[in-house]
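Can't paste images in this forum, so I'm doing it all in text. The chain is below; anyone willing to post the predicted structure tokens underneath?
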Amino acid sequence: MRRSLLLACLLLMPVTAGCVVPPSPDSSGPPVAEVLPADARALVYGRSASEVLDNPQLRDKVRALFGADWGPPSPGVGKLTLAAPVYFERGGPLRMVHIGNADYIAITGCAAQDCAGRRGLLLVREGGEQLMARLDEGGFSHHYAYGPDVVGGPAGAAVVLDSALRALVRASNGSPFPRPGS
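Text version of the structure:
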């Protein structure tokens, strides 16, 4: 009995002491993103968020990316309280972002009626085969992933999207999203 009690204490001690396991030497941390100078690649699918969402080369992929959240919400279906396109009603500038070994078109936007609370970020990997999105809704972030080689699906895409968003915030001095009233 005493031995099992001692073993239990030894096993629980790191948990109760707040033990933090250092990262393994092969983990490189979150990917570093860099906003690239503007060029024509950012406009290959359109000049605005709405044009990109409705581009014939991307239309079906974007709808598949958002799935049930593309259309108006239905009780018990999807995660959002508004349809995904609403988060891009007021589009920001289209930009190129370099993350890891890939370049992405970054499309930002927000809902016209609640630009501060409902924002969207869509990343389209160069070539258009891989898409990732983050929709922010009143303090909650919803992540989406579509295409080959999206490691970890929406959860894996979250790391890439968060890195891109940090770079876009730095490049735009605070917010890459449209400003209310603009």
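The CA atoms of residues 134 and 143 lie 5 Å apart. The helical segments are 2-16, 49-53, 59-66, 153-171.
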